[in-house]
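Quick note —
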Amino acid sequence: MTPDLIVLADTIHAMDGQMGDSHQAVAVRDGVITAVGSRAEAQDWAYAGTRVVDLGNATLTPGLVDCHIHPVFGLDLTIGVDLSSAATLEEVRALLQSESENDGGWLRGWGLNPNAFGEVPLHRSVLDAVSGDKPALIRLFDGHSALANSRALDLAGIRGRHEFEQASEVVCDADSVPTGLLLEAAAMELVQRHIPQEPFSERKARLATLLRDFARSGLTGGHVMDHSEESSALFQALEAGGELPLRLRSAPWCMPGSDEAEWKKLARTMGTGGRRWSVEAIKLFVDGTVDNGTAWLHEPDTHGQSTAPFWPRPEEYTAAIRYFAARGIPTATHAIGDAGVEYVLEALESLRGDVPADILRGTVHRIEHLETVPDGLVERFKGTGIVASMQPTHCTHYSLADHSDNWSTRLGKERADRAWRCRDLREAGVTLGIGSDWPIAPFEPLPIIADAQLRRRSGHPEQEPIAPAQGLTAYQALEGYTSHAAKAAGLWNVSGSISVGKRADFTAFELDPLTTDPDELAASAVLGTFVDGEIQFMLERLA
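Predicted structure written out below.
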């Protein structure tokens, strides 16, 4: 077939499992790869109407896919002042004071790292001191907790403890007075519902800007770990206006307290979508976060917390997993603590014999995060087909090699030494998808690929690596965004490598990600992205 596009680059990494790539050209027709070969061979492919894009000495790879993002949910999580750079309580107060002077309604903020508080408890008084008469709600960096001031608690009618269908909590002091700390979605929603809604047009514009930034960073796709009716409306509106520059694969939430009637409604949404977005999986949670004391651990953390599952009756989680798996619907479960990961493994292992083998083989089930797991659980992954989806920068941005950070302190040395066991899982033959969990951590993939190798924050050679034996090779890190990302979505037959018959989704690098020093790679440029053989982003000098 005569191609409508030929892309040339001095180096092409096909990521098809064959090492030692020697390609410099790829041909595309109607969004599908039709040939891969040399520059000399490409001269015979072209005809009068073929567009040729010559990237010179660039490196071309399959399009990068972030395996865990929250672009729509993140619109709510990123309103107000960005507190992620605050390293001390004084810096937090200064940023909040500046925002309070400029914000006309609610005082909002996000990205707050509890390490900035040091030994000072997270308490509403910190916000009361800078918010004046305004209600205030500040999101912590993990997305699973928030701090409200006294005015916001009063507006929401929060005056004591609450009971929830899921493991959420309005944290109270010894006198049952709310401290302002709200743990998990149901508790945060008590305040969130009183905040004026952002107009659809503004949310659409912010999402369009975000997705363009995704494309400029090198992303051609993302696994969206949330979905709602608003998500559908926003994606439809963006696609209608030609503003959807990457593929989005979404997974709506299945939460505790739901029943089979609600599971059926979720199942009916599978496969809905548009040209570049679709609903393809179900997202569940079995625990929360270590930093908040809401993870599910076999033994309590050093605060006596993180001992309970997110589903108060975890057998109902197993029933939900079985319902979706029996219908060939992929699932992705948030599991951070060792007990949580083990329970999910057991639930998925229990499907054997209950779900027809052909359906089970054809459906991808994933565990998200896996922050601390012992050797035995790594071994149990072998041969199960269960995918691990992990975020290297959760390790490098929020924990420290000396264990002085909040995450490590809560776990204690033994469990903190089991941090983000990416290499061990790969050595066990596990498919490992890599992502950012934006907005929990920055989305730019090149620094994440670098951090996955370095086990420290790229660009900071003075930092001591965190469990350096868990560092990935350059090839493994790139696989996490390409071939393994495709396998994690059950799409290896149509994407994830530069192979004939697969989608023409590509990312062009200034430097070769397989041979460049990771720190240097993290600071280098992405030259362009293609989706369906259509340029979504290209540096001006190459356009």
